[in-house]
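re: ur question from yesterday

yeah so i grabbed the chain u mentioned. its 78 aa long if i counted rite. heres the sequnce exactly as i have it in my notes:
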Amino acid sequence: MEKHIEMLGKINSKEDFIKFIEIYASTINDSSFKAYLESVSSWTEDMESYYYNTGKEIPQNINWDFIATLFYVGSIYE
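ran it thru and got these structure tokens back, copy pasting raw so excuse formatting
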């Protein structure tokens, strides 16, 4: 089983999510999808700046594992 799939169910932080996305992106051959995942990773690393610059409150209690699962299953579902 691939490393990113093994991580599902164990992603408990923003850092875990970023690691998942980076590992997942390294398995992708489609350059557009790979670039998209890399952008998601970069934005997530700097997401606090987005919220600060837009005057929005940073979300609390983010379920990073659920978000990672959405990314993964969205690419394999039918």
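noticed a couple things. Residues 31-45 form the longest helix (15 residues). also The chain has one domain: 3-76.
anyway ttyl
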